[in-house]
Amino acid sequence: MKHIRLRRNSGLAIAAALFAAAPFLSAQAQQQHAHVHGQMKLDVAIDGPTVVIDMESPLDNIVGFERAPKTDAEKKTVADAIAQLRAADKLFAIDPAANCKLGPVDLRSGALGLGNPDPNEPVGHADLDATFSFNCTNAAAAKFIDLNLFSVFKGLRQIDSQIASSQGQFKRQLKRPTGAQAAQPARLGWGK
Ligand SMILES: [Zn+2]
């Protein structure tokens, strides 16, 4: 009897310890997930007349290194990447039904001295985060965005996306297309 009770108690103790550890583990897992080379997070929010795309990417995906540029070639790589990100309507072709025009683009990267970077960047790494805002005459009609990110940023292998729209919340994962599809835009679609 006593033996059984002890075993139950120790089981409860282990369960309690696991529950106590869980928030820490999941926070750590999220942090690691936030910076995996080759992966990018893309959050799309369709709200009123706007489509706002929040991007969180390891800088490595965008320029191939994670520090300030040193050589002329690296400086050119960075300048080209920034120009491509600022011309965001070439990277993100929103469903024409929504009739969107590119609005403000906000780029943030501590390593590149851009904007107000996230102070919680992983040690030894650097991110490039961005917010792209589009103004639309019929934002609610948008059901997809064609992404040219894979063809422009060669280090990118996977996009994990969340979409919040009046049609609901969606999660999508896109992998770098291969073969004949590699040069085509990758369609991020949702809704009906
Ligand atoms: Zn990194």
The strand line-up of the biggest sheet is: 4-5-2-1-7-8
Question: Would you count the extended β strands for me?
Answer: 9
Radius of gyration: 21 Å
What compounds sit in this structure? zinc ion
Shape: globular
Our count of domains comes out at 1
pLDDT average, as an integer? 85
Number of helices: 5
Low-confidence regions: 1-33
Relative helix content: 25-40%
What is the H/E string? HEEHHHEEEEHEEE
What's the end-to-end separation, in Å? 60 Å
The percent range for strand residues is: 25-35%
For the sheet with most strands, the description reads: 6 strands, mixed
Give the structural class: alpha+beta
Keywords, separated by commas or semicolons:
six-stranded mixed beta sheet; 9 strands; disordered N terminus; binds zinc ion
Give an overview of the whole structure:
The protein has helices at residues 2-34, 59-63, 72-86, 88-91, 149-152, and strands at residues 39-47, 50-58, 92-94, 100-108, 127-136, 144-147, 158-165, 168-175, 186-189. With 192 residues, it is α+β, with helices and mostly antiparallel strands. It has a 6-stranded mixed β-sheet with strand order 4-5-2-1-7-8. Mean pLDDT is 85; it is low at 1-33. It has one domain. It has 5 helices and 9 strands, in the order αββαααββββαβββ. Zinc ion binds next to loops.
